[in-house]
C-alpha cells in the first residue's frame, strides 16, 4: 500500500530504534535515515533524540499507538489495515504488530463519535493483544495515497518542490479530514483552525512567495538542548534552497563562540545563530495551545514573549558575527545624536499592547484590509490578499483573483473605486512593493550581521516613497507617518520601542 | 408636562446571520422600503461619523451601503448622508481620510458636511424623508449610544468650559439632553434603525483597551425614535424609564415611552435580551497601572470627560506610568486624600477649589540641624555639637491643575504632556501627535513636533 521509498525508510527507523534499546552507545551506530516525508538525511540517533524530545510535546506523551487505515467509500466495515506500535518512550516506534483483518470493525457512523470509537478499539486490543493503546491515528485511504504520491516524488524534485508538495499535502489532509488523531493534539487542532482562516490560500504559495522574497544566503542555526546539539544549515542559491543536518558536539559555554566561528569558517557560512531548543519548543507549544482566531489579549501575550526572546540576545540566542547594531561604539554615536537604539531594552512588555490598541482604534475592531504586493518596475500586482478582522482578531485571509483587480497603473484610488463597487466594503488598501519587502528582508534579517546602518536607514526611507508603500484611504496614523520626516519619526517612535530602563 | 402621545407604533426586532440580512429583515418586518420611500423622494440619512476611526466608532458601511441601495431601488432621487462628529474633527476631514464620498458616490449618494453654520435642522427641511442609522455602543452617560444622540454637536475633546454649576443640578446633562432632543421636537425621523448586530461593550463609545465587540445578530427599527430607543434599552436589559434621554423625551412629549403603546414585531423581546458589560459608572473602578483615582461628588460633565481621560490613560499610557511610577487623579468636590504625594492631578474646578487646604498641598520634611549657638558651644567646649530636629514645610509642586467644569479633554492631555515632558511620556506624546492629525488633515500638513 505504501510507497517503497517511504516503507524502506520507516523500516530502517524502526530497526534502528530497536537497536538503541540493546546498544550501550547508540550514538556510535552512525546510521543515516531520512526524516519521514522529507528527502532530508539525518543521523538516526539524532532523529531518535529529536523524536523523544518533540513528539510528547506536540503529538502525545502517552505510550502505545494504534494506526488504522480506513476506506473512503465503504459504509459498514471500512477498516483496510491496522497495526499497533508498542512503545516504551512516547513516539519512539520500534516494532509494528499487524492486527488480523477483522480484529477491528469500524462503520462510517462510528467516525461521528471518535471518543467512543477509541474506547471500543482500546478494549479490543487489550483483550486480543494485552496492550493498552493510549492514542489512535486513523488515516483515510486517500490520505495514504497522497502520502505515497508525495514520497514517490521526493527523489525527482528539488527542495522547494518538496516543501510545496509537503505543505499542500498537510493542508489537504487537514482540510479534508484525511487524518484523525485521538486524543487530538493541540498542533492538529491549531492547524485545522489555521487552515479554515486561510480560505483558498495555499500554504505552498505563501512559502514560495516568502522564498522568492528572500535573497541568496548561507546560514546555520545551532540548536542546543540537554545532552544534544545539532546544526541546521540552510542556504539558498539561484532560487534553490537546501537544508542539511549537521551533528554538532556539545561544547562548554566558554568554548561555544570559538566553535561556532569554526563552524562558520569550515562551512563558509555567512552567519551562525545559536538557539536553545527547549525555548523554541516551549514557545511553539504555547502558540499551538492558542485557539484560532487568536484573541487580542492572547496575541499581546504571544508578541510579548516573542519580543522578549528577540531582546534576549546573548542569553536565549546568539549570532556570530554579532550584528553591528549591538556594537557599543555605534550605539554610543547614535545616542550622541539623540537616538537610543539598544535592542536589549526592547520594550517587549509595552509594545504589543500599544500597537494593537492603536491598530484597533485607528483601523477599527472589524475591518477588511486588502494587501497588494506590487512590482512597480513592471507596474503590475503580484499578489492580492484580503485580510478580515473581527473584534481585532484576524479571522479570514482570502486571495483576491488578479482578474478582479485591474493594475490601473498601480493607482490606489482607481483600484479602490473599482473594488468598492464589487465588494461589500473595503476599509483600506495597503500597497507594498516587492523591492521594499526584499530590501527589508535582506537588510534587517538575512544580512543584519554586516549591513551598515546607513543602508538600513535607506530601506526605512523607501517606506516614505508612495511608490513602495501606500495606504488608501488614509488613516490618522498613516497621515502622521506621511507628515513627518524619517528622522522625526524615529525620534518619536524609538522612545516607545526602546525602554529607558531595564524592566 | 404635555399629554403623552397615545398612538400605537410598530418597533421591529430582527435577528439574522449577516448584517445585510438583518437589515433586510427589519425592512420586511416594517413593511418594505416602499412604505418609507416614494418615487423621486429626497432622503437624508443621519449616520454616526464620530472620528476618523474604524468600526464600531462609526456606523457600519456595509449597512450604509445596504440602505442606500434599498432607497435607490424604492425610487429615491437623491440620498444624502449626514453626521455630527464628536471629537472636534470636521466631517470634511473624516471624509478626506476615510473617502466616504468615494465609496457612496457610485451608489448615488453623497456625504453632506454639517459645517460652517449649517445645522441638521436646517438641512432636514430640504428633504422629503429623514432616516437615522445608529450604531449602538456602550456610553458612559446614557448607558448606550441611542439613535437620538449624535443629532447635535457634542465635542467632548474640546468642550467649551461651562460656568461652574451646582453638582446636584447636573446642568451638563440637562443642557446636553436639551440640545439632543431639540431636533426631534421639530422633526421626527421617518425610519430609525439601531444597529446592534455588533455592539461594543466594556468601554466605549470610542475604542479603548477594555472595548470588546460582541455579535448579537440583531437590529431594532421603527418610525418612532423614542420607541426604538426604548426597546433597544429594554433589549439590553436597561430600564428605559431610568434613562435620562428617554425621560427627557417623555417630558417633552416627543415619542412613545409607554411599552403598552409599542407593538413589537419580529423577535420576542423577553427571549432576545442581551447581557453586556457597561461603562464603569464609578471612575475609581477604572484600573490604571501606577495610578490611584479618588473621587468626591462629581458632576456628570466632569464624570463624562474624566471617563474618557482615564480610559485614554489606561489605553495609551502604560509605559509612561511605569516611568513616572506614581500618579494620583482627584476628581470632583472634596475628594479623599491621594495615595501618593507625587504627580497629583486635580481634575476640574471642584477638585481644585475644595482641596485648597488639603494636607497633600504641603510637604513636611524634617532634618537634623545644628543651631548656631550649639555650634559655637561645641567649638568652645571641643565637644560634638548637639543636633536638633527641625521641620520644614514647603508647597507641593508636583500638583497639576486641570481646570474647567468640565475640563477640556484636549487641553487636559496637553497639560499632562507638558507636565511630564515627552521623554517621560513617549506614548502619550505619540497619541497627542495622532490626535493632531484629526485637526490638521484639512491643511494636509501636521505641525512638526506635535500640537
Lay out the secondary structure.
The complex is a heterodimer of chains A (about 500) and B (about 450).
Chain A: H1 4-22, E1 32-34, E2 41-43, H2 44-58, E3 65-70, E4 79-85, E5 96-98, H3 114-129, E6 135-140, H4 141-153, H5 159-175, E7 179-182, H6 186-197, H7 203-213, E8 217-225, E9 228-237, E10 240-247, H8 253-266, E11 271-276, H9 277-289, H10 296-311, E12 317-320, H11 328-336, H12 351-363, E13 367-375, E14 380-390, E15 393-399, H13 412-422, E16 428-433, H14 434-446, H15 453-462, E17 469-472, H16 476-483, H17 486-497
Parallel strand pairs in A: 3-6, 8-11, 13-16
Antiparallel strand pairs in A: 1-2, 3-4, 4-5, 6-7, 8-9, 9-10, 11-12, 13-14, 14-15, 16-17
Helix pairs in contact in A: 4-5, 5-7, 6-9, 10-12, 14-15
Chain B: E1 9-15, H1 19-30, E2 42-46, H2 61-73, E3 78-82, H3 91-98, H4 100-104, E4 109-111, H5 120-124, E5 129-139, E6 143-144, H6 171-186, E7 191-201, E8 212-222, H7 225-235, H8 244-251, E9 262-266, E10 291-295, H9 300-316, H10 318-324, E11 327-331, E12 344-347, H11 349-354, E13 362-369, H12 372-381, E14 388-395, E15 399-402, H13 409-420, H14 426-440
Parallel strand pairs in B: 1-9, 2-3, 2-5, 3-4, 5-7, 10-11, 11-12, 12-15
Antiparallel strand pairs in B: 1-8, 5-6, 7-8, 13-14
Helix pairs in contact in B: 1-2, 6-8
How is this structure best described in words?
The complex is a heterodimer of chains A (about 500) and B (about 450). Chain A has about 500 residues and is of the alpha+beta class. Chain A folds into 3 domains: about 5-195, no CATH class; about 210-325, Nucleotidyltransferase, domain 5 (2-Layer Sandwich), CATH 3.30.420; about 350-495, Nonspecific Lipid-transfer Protein, Chain A (2-Layer Sandwich), CATH 3.30.1050. Chain A has 17 helices and 17 strands. Chain A has a 5-stranded mixed β-sheet with strand order 5-4-3-6-7. In chain A, strands 10-9-8-11-12 form a 5-stranded mixed β-sheet. The longest helix of chain A is centred in the N-terminal third of the chain and has 19 residues, at about 5-20. The radius of gyration of chain A is 26 Å and the shape is globular. Chain B has helices at about 20-30, 60-75, 90-100, 100-105, 120-125, 170-185, 225-235, 245-250, 300-315, 320-325, 350-355, 370-380, 410-420, 425-440, and strands at about 10-15, 40-45, 80, 110, 130-140, 145, 190-200, 210-220, 260-265, 290-295, 325-330, 345, 360-370, 390-395, 400. In chain B, the strands form 3 sheets. In chain B, strands 1, 2, 3, 4, 5, 6, 7, 8 and 9 form a 9-stranded mixed β-sheet that branches. A 4-stranded parallel β-sheet of chain B has the order 10-11-12-15. The radius of gyration of chain B is 27 Å and the shape is elongated. In chain B, about 50% of the residues are buried. The interface between A and B is large, with 44 and 52 residues.
Amino acid at each position: 500500500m505504501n510507497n517503497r521509498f517511504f516503507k524502506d525508510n520507516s523500516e530502517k527507523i524502526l530497526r534502528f530504534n530497536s537497536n538503541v534499546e540493546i546498544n550501550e552507545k547508540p550514538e556510535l551506530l552512525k546510521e543515516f535515515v531520512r526524516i519521514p516525508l522529507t528527502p532530508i538525511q539525518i543521523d538516526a540517533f539524532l532523529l531518535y533524540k529529536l523524536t523523544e524530545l518533540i513528539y510528547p510535546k506536540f503529538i502525545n506523551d502517552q505510550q502505545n499507538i494504534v494506526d488504522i487505515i480506513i476506506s473512503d467509500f465503504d459504509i459498514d466495515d471500512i477498516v483496510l489495515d491496522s497495526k499497533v506500535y508498542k512503545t516504551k518512550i512516547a513516539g519512539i516506534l520500534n516494532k509494528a504488530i499487524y492486527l488480523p483483518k477483522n480484529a477491528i470493525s469500524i462503520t462510517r457512523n462510528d467516525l461521528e463519535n471518535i471518543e467512543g470509537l477509541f474506547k471500543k478499539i482500546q478494549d479490543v486490543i487489550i483483550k486480543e493483544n494485552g496492550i493498552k493503546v493510549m492514542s489512535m491515528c486513523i488515516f483515510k485511504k486517500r490520505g495514504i495515497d497522497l502520502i505515497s504520491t508525495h514520497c514517490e516524488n521526493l527523489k525527482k524534485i528539488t527542495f522547494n518542490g518538496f516543501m510545496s508538495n509537503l505543505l499542500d499535502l498537510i493542508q489537504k489532509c487537514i482540510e479534508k479530514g484525511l487524518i484523525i488523531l485521538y486524543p487530538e493534539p493541540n498542533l492538529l487542532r491549531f492547524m485545522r483552525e489555521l487552515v479554515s482562516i486561510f480560505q483558498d490560500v495555499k500554504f505552498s504559495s505563501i512559502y514560495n512567495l516568502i522564498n522568492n522574497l528572500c535573497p541568496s544566503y548561507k546560514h546555520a542555526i545551532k540548536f542546543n538542548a540537554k545532552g544534544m546539539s545539532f546544526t541546521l544549515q540552510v542556504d539558498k542559491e539561484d532560487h534553490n534552497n537546501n537544508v542539511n543536518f549537521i551533528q554538532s558536539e556539545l561544547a562548554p559555554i566558554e568554548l561555544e563562540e570559538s566553535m561556532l566561528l569554526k563552524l562558520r569558517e569550515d562551512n563558509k557560512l555567512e552567519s551562525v545563530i545559536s538557539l536553545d531548543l527547549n525555548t523554541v519548543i516551549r514557545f511553539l507549544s504555547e502558540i499551538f495551545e492558542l485557539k484560532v482566531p487568536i484573541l487580542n489579549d492572547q496575541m499581546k501575550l504571544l508578541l510579548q514573549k516573542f519580543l522578549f526572546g528577540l531582546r534576549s540576545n546573548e542569553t536565549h540566542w546568539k549570532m556570530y558575527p554579532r550584528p553591528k547594531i549591538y556594537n557599543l561604539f555605534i550605539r554610543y554615536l547614535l545616542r550622541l545624536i539623540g537616538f537610543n537604539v539598544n535592542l536589549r531594552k526592547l520594550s517587549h512588555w509595552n509594545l504589543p499592547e500599544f500597537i494593537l490598541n492603536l491598530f484597533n482604534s485607528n483601523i477599527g475592531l472589524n475591518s477588511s484590509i486588502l494587501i497588494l504586493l506590487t512590482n512597480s518596475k513592471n507596474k503590475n500586482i503580484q499578489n492580492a490578499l484580503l485580510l478580515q478582522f473581527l473584534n481585532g482578531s484576524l479571522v479570514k485571509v482570502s486571495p483576491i483573483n488578479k482578474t478582479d483587480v485591474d493594475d490601473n497603473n498601480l493607482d490606489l484610488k482607481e483600484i479602490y473605486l473599482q473594488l468598492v463597487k464589487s465588494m461589500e466594503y473595503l476599509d483600506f488598501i495597503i500597497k507594498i512593493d516587492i523591492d521594499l519587502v526584499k530590501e527589508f528582508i535582506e537588510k534587517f534579517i538575512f544580512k543584519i550581521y554586516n549591513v551598515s546602518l546607513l543602508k538600513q536607514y535607506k530601506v526605512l526611507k523607501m517606506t516614505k516613497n508612495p511608490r513602495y508603500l501606500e495606504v488608501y484611504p488614509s488613516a490618522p496614523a498613516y497621515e502622521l507617518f506621511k507628515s513627518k520626516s524619517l528622522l522625526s519619526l524615529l525620534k518619536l517612535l524609538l522612545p516607545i520601542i526602546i525602554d529607558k530602563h531595564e524592566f | 408636562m404635555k399629554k403623552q402621545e397615545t398612538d400605537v407604533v410598530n418597533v421591529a426586532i430582527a435577528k439574522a446571520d449577516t448584517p445585510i440580512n438583518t437589515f433586510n429583515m427589519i425592512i420586511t418586518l416594517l413593511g418594505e422600503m416602499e412604505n418609507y420611500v416614494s418615487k423621486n423622494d429626497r432622503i437624508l440619512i443621519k449616520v454616526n461619523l464620530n472620528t476618523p476611526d474604524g468600526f464600531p466608532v462609526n456606523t457600519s458601511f456595509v449597512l450604509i451601503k445596504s440602505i442606500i441601495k434599498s432607497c435607490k431601488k424604492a425610487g429615491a432621487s437623491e440620498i444624502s448622508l449626514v453626521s455630527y462628529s464628536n471629537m472636534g474633527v470636521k466631517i470634511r476631514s473624516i471624509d478626506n481620510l476615510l473617502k466616504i464620498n468615494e465609496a457612496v458616490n457610485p451608489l448615488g449618494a453623497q456625504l453632506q458636511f454639517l459645517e460652517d453654520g449649517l445645522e441638521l435642522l436646517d438641512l432636514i427641511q430640504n428633504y422629503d424623508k429623514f432616516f437615522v442609522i445608529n450604531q449602538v455602543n456602550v456610553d458612559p452617560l446614557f448607558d448606550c449610544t441611542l439613535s437620538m444622540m449624535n443629532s447635535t454637536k457634542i465635542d467632548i475633546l474640546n468642550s467649551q468650559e461651562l460656568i461652574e454649576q451646582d453638582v446636584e443640578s447636573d446642568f451638563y446633562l440637562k443642557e446636553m439632553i436639551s440640545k439632543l432632543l431639540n431636533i426631534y421636537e421639530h422633526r421626527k425621523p421617518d425610519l430609525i434603525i439601531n444597529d446592534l448586530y455588533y455592539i461594543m461593550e466594556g468601554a466605549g463609545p470610542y475604542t479603548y483597551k477594555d472595548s470588546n465587540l460582541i455579535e448579537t445578530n440583531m437590529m431594532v427599527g421603527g418610525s418612532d425614535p423614542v420607541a426604538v430607543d426604548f426597546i433597544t434599552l429594554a433589549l439590553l436589559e436597561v430600564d428605559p424609564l431610568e434613562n435620562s434621554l428617554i425621560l427627557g423625551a417623555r417630558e417633552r412629549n416627543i415619542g412613545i415611552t409607554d411599552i403598552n403603546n409599542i407593538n413589537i414585531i419580529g423577535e420576542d423581546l423577553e427571549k432576545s435580551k442581551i447581557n453586556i458589560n457597561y461603562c464603569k459608572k464609578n471612575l475609581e473602578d477604572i484600573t490604571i497601572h501606577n495610578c490611584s483615582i479618588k473621587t468626591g461628588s462629581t458632576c456628570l460633565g466632569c464624570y463624562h470627560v474624566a471617563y474618557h481621560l482615564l480610559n485614554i490613560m489606561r489605553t495609551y499610557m502604560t509605559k509612561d506610568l511605569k516611568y513616572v511610577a506614581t500618579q494620583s487623579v482627584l476628581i470632583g468636590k472634596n475628594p479623599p486624600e491621594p495615595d501618593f504625594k507625587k504627580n497629583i492631578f486635580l481634575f476640574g474646578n471642584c477638585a481644585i477649589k475644595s482641596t485648597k487646604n488639603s494636607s497633600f498641598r504641603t510637604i513636611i520634611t524634617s532634618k537634623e540641624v545644628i543651631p548656631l549657638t550649639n555650634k559655637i558651644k561645641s567649638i568652645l567646649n571641643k565637644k560634638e555639637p548637639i543636633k536638633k530636629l527641625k521641620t520644614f514645610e514647603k508647597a507641593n509642586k508636583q500638583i497639576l491643575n486641570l481646570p474647567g467644569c468640565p475640563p477640556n479633554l484636549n487641553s487636559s492631555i496637553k497639560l499632562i504632556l507638558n507636565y511630564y515632558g515627552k521623554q517621560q511620556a513617549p506614548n502619550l506624546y505619540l497619541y497627542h501627535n495622532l490626535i493632531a492629525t484629526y485637526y490638521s488633515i484639512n491643511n494636509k500638513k501636521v505641525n512638526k513636533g506635535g500640537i
